Amino acid sequence: MKRVLFVCSGNTCRSPMAQGLFTRMIADYLGGDLANEYDVWSAGIFAADGIPAAQAAVDTMLQYGIDLSTHRSRRIDQDMINNADLVLVMTREHCLYMMEMFAESKGKIFLLSDFAGYDGQEIFDPYGMGIESYKKSARQIKGMLEKLLGKLS
Fold first, then answer.
1. How high is the pLDDT of residue 30?
2. d(CA 24, CA 7)
């Protein structure tokens, strides 16, 4: 099983949206048995454990047929890194932080956009902004994940 971990700051917006989108896309695009080969989860660098996804993230994901209502934030830890095959972060700052904190795992930590072939683009942080900001971030994530799926399949 391939284990993919998405990481953002608080694990209430970008990384849970990425987790939901990627899980749905795997099922839709790869389908069948291949979808069972992936375990996808998310965490946050500065997350407090147990916080629900932002309501605007929940509302945005419903438009994709994805339910984030049961999501609860988790703070990144060494066990998560050890258990992941691939760690995808949203910003350069996240990448630098993760590589410093988990230096022995550098080879599996990547900026999502770099891994997808977008060369350094960062995922827009919608936290505290209106629904249109969440939609913008979701579109950005989805586009990169489509490229990523092409790489992984």
1. 67
2. 18
How do the domains of the chain map onto residue ranges? 2-152
pTM as predicted: 0.94
The catalytic residues are 8, 14, 125
- What span, in angstroms and rounded, lies between the C-alpha atoms of 2 and 12? 23
Q: What average pLDDT does range 93-115 have in this prediction? A: 94
Instruction: Report the distance separating Cα 94 and Cα 100, nearest Å.
Output: 10
| Nearest CA among 65, 52, 83 for reference residue 24 | 65
Phi, psi angles (nearest 5°) of residue 7: -130, 135
According to the CATH classification, is domain 2-152 in 3.40.50.2300?
A: yes
Coil/strand/helix, residue 58: helix
User: Is the Cβ–Cβ distance between 113 and 79 less than 8 Å?
Assistant: no
Q: Which residues contact 120 (CB under 8 A, 6 or more apart)?
A: 92, 111, 113, 114
